Task: structure prediction
Amino acid sequence: EVQLQQSGPELRRPGSSVKLSCKASGYSITDYLMHWVKHRPEHGLEWIGWIDPEDGETKYAQKFQSKATLTADTSSNTAYMQLSSLTSEDTATYFCARSTPFDYWGQGVMVTVSS
Amino acid sequence: DVVLTQTPVAQPVTLGDQASISCRSSQSLVHSNGNTYLEWYLQKPGQSPQLLIYKVSNRFSGVPDRFIGSGSGSDFTLKISRVEPEDLGVYYCFQATHDPRTFGGGTKLELK
Result:
């Protein structure tokens, strides 16, 4: 059974960074791109980017180019997203999703940025 | 970047009604390989989004046949016949033809 298990909720100060994980089971992450999506209820879903875990190639939406860094560890079958220079605008739920179409999603992780 | 415009923003319905959601793209979503990668997702409150339709009109495994995707080029529609309580939530179209990928703004299907 395919599952994407994300790490737990995070509380961070403005200006700090956070690294989120997405551990895949039931398949090899090298077989599919892994995407990340941001959700804020008042803004809907935003596509952040994808990583090809097989070779590390990445692609980002313009607005997340300097905000998010996607990586993957094939030995642990886990994808990661680091968010840097956090502001209140980064307070959101972040999902990983197997591509594509997005047939499997992680459960989401809430990131709260607050002083 | 491709902009997907969904209308309406909110769709009040009575259970058993038909609902229709439009998704218009700022450019053609026909890929150079001939496929059109337009998808539909439903996000219920507190849940991860779930895939309904891929490549315009293909229902994902387990999706009831009351969900019908149609369209071509840059104009797409999701129809839900006989709305049931479990259909309520926010619907998003998504294009995977062009990088960067993009979501529509969402349509909230809610009870009248």
About this structure: Chain B has a mean pLDDT of 97. Chain B has no helices and eleven strands.
